[in-house]
Each structure stands twice: as structure tokens, then as C-alpha cells.
Amino acid sequence: MDARLYVSRLGGAATVPPSKSAAHRAVVCAALADGVSRITNIEYSQDIRATLGAAAQLGAKIREEERAVTITGRGSASGFATVTRPVFCNESGSTLRFMIPLFSLTAQKVRFTGAGRLFDRPQAVYQMLFDRQGLRFEQAVDGITVFGRLRPGGFTLPGDVSSQFISGLLFAAPLMESESTIEVLPPYESRSYVDLTIGAMQQFGVKVTARSRKNGSVIYRIAAPQRYTASDFAVEGDYSQAAFLAVLGCVVGGITVTGLNPDSQQGDKVILDILQRCGGKCRAVEGGYRFERSLLRATEIDLADCPDLGPILFTLGCFCSGETVIRNAGRLRLKESDRIEAMQSELQKMGARVQVDGDTVHITGVALHAPREPLYGHNDHRIVMALAVAACASGLPALLTGAEAVNKSWPAFWETLRGLGAKVEFE
């Protein structure tokens, strides 16, 4: 689907979607819990549907409503269902990495399938762990097959890889026969996502303790066996999605973003600090923040703990005077697309000055022009949204192909943009 964006006057208020990160974790915990849990303020994006589908294959009973889901969990690993077909993870890295350790506890041969670039993403951490325990872990271009039950013990993981591996082990460890420890070696990146995992586990009755060592590593201790207990869980608004509207608001002015918890532990809440360092005008209002037109200036940004903000920070750099430097951007190459190459190539169609030096990106703020060819979304939800913001914020018409990619995380994105006054037609 193509989206044609026209020059529009923007302003007003919009509510962000529920946090995808929090929803994944709530669904997993509810599926493991003993009893009936109700998760409210949930949006059925493609990624969340993948996790719900996997949870059902573990044996959880799921009843969907418009904005809520009721999940009757299995209570323990001994209650997991027989796996009779491949576990389809679509393009959701969270689903895949959260579920691999859990499905290993069935002691069955399980195949995981997906779509897009899912199996281009590295899985070496799990390969290593399974190999060390003499278990089967086979990755091919079209899927991963595991066979054998992960055993408790001491796990050591690098901290500069996806935090999803750490979360996956954390989910499974309480269901094992005895205590486990997980040591995360420095540098420990994206720790805020692990904190979200532990917060969800604790709400569902599981205890995890953390201890920092002098060498910079962090050791998590998980007693076992423990039981997840049913809980009602309200999913808070998503700061990684709010970032798109926040940047738009600081460029065009007059945009209020609601549905956000000011005390959130989401790592992507750092977008507020980044915008303030750039001179962005932001003030708290009831349920969210108000963003006003600002004279933005360049700053240096470290993406190590907030990689999902990468694409919209490329867009932000285009509207800042001076040179914006984005460091530790390497993991952007391993997402639904190579997000560094994608943002560089598409923004350059609008006249942006983007230079890449290894894992560091330099963006010099210059006046943009209307693209002379279509912008391509690279089958990546965050690329599509970041490019849409770039066009709307610069007041330039543009044709954006692959606009349907937003369904992965924010199906109502285009409706939200229209609600702020954007004129968008679909072809």
C-alpha cells in the first residue's frame, strides 16, 4: 500500500498506543500463571498476535475483547500442551526469543517459523547455551528447531546483545527444577527492557533478585520452582511510539501526546531528555505531554539503551542546527531492515546530509526538499513512521510505499496522523 502525504497544517492531541514491550511481557506471564488474568489496554498489532498465538500453543486459553484479553494460564511447565505444529513468530523478535526457552521446557521437538528478516537476526546466544547443555538448536534460513529441556544452573550472557535473550531465560528459570543465576557481562546495554521483564514477573508473583558486581556485571538469582500467579495488568502507553509524535510536535508545534505514565520505567522515555537537550519545548499535562514548536539544536545521542528510537532520531537530526551524532547504532542493522542504510538512503532522497562511520551516524541539519522519487518503507514499521514524520514536519508532499508496515506495532498510526490534521491518501 502506498501513502501519499500532502502539505497540511498539523496540531491537536493524540493518544499513543499501548506499550508493545509491556504487552508482550504481560501475555507471557499470564500464559504461565495459575489462574485467570485480564490484560487491559492492549492493541492487537502483528507482534502481539504472534505472542498470543505462541501462548496458546503452550496451552493457555485466550479470549479476546476489543481492548482487553483474558488469559487462563497453565500454572507450571508440567501443564504445557503437546506442540503439534510450528510456532509462528511472524517478524517478532520478542516472540521468538521469549518463547525458545519456554518451549524447550516441553522437552519436545519444536520448530519456530517466521516472516521477513526474522531469521537473519543473530541467535548465537541461544545456540551457545543449548550447545553447552548438549541440546539441539538448529537454525536455517526459514526457521529454528530446538529439542531438549534447558536445565537450571549458572548462565553467563554478554550484555551487548539483545536484552531479549536475558528476558527469555528469566521467564523460563522459575519453572525449572532448582535455582538458576544469570550473569550479564559488561557493557550491559538495554537494561531497562530487562527491568520491564522483572517488573512484570514480580506483578505475577515471581521473585527475582539482582546484584551488581565490582567488575560491572549484574547477577540475577531466580529461585525455583516458583509459580506465576494470575494478575490483572493494565498496559501503559508506549514511549517508543510517542517519540514519533514528540519529534513532530517539537518541529511544527501544538501537539499534545496523551496516554503516557510519567513514572514509567520504559527506557525509551529518554526521548524526553533528548528533545530537551536539543532545545525542544515540552511540558507535562494531565496524562501526557505538550510539545511546542522549537528552535532545535544538535546533540550527541547514545543508542546503546534505546535502539528502537533510532529511526525517529535520524529524522530529528534533520531538523536540528549543527551536526547530530548518534553513537552505538550498530544494532539498527539487525532489525526488520538495516535501519541505518534505510534511513540514510530515504532521507537523502529529501536532501538530508547523513554520513555513516561504522556504528556512528552524523546528521547535519539542512533544508529538506520534496523527494523526486517515492520513499520506500523497507517493510519496517519504524522506518515508515519516521519517514512520515520527516515529510509532515518539513511540510513537503511525498509518496511513501509499503505504508502497511505500521501494522506490525501501531495499526492506527495513519488514523492518528490524520487526526492531527495530516492529509493522507492511500493507493
TrEMBL record:
EC numbers for this chain: 2.5.1.19
Superkingdom of origin: Bacteria
Cellular compartments annotated: Cytoplasm
Catalytic activity as recorded in UniProt: 3-phosphoshikimate + phosphoenolpyruvate = 5-O-(1-carboxyvinyl)-3-phosphoshikimate + phosphate
Domain (Enolpyruvate transferase) ranges: 8-417
GO biological process, one term: chorismate biosynthetic process
Active-site residues from the entry: 308
Signal peptide per UniProt: none
HAMAP family in UniProt: EPSP_synth
UniProt-recorded name of the protein: 3-phosphoshikimate 1-carboxyvinyltransferase
Source species of the chain: Candidatus Gemmiger excrementavium
Lineage per the UniProt record: Bacteria, Bacillati, Bacillota, Clostridia, Eubacteriales
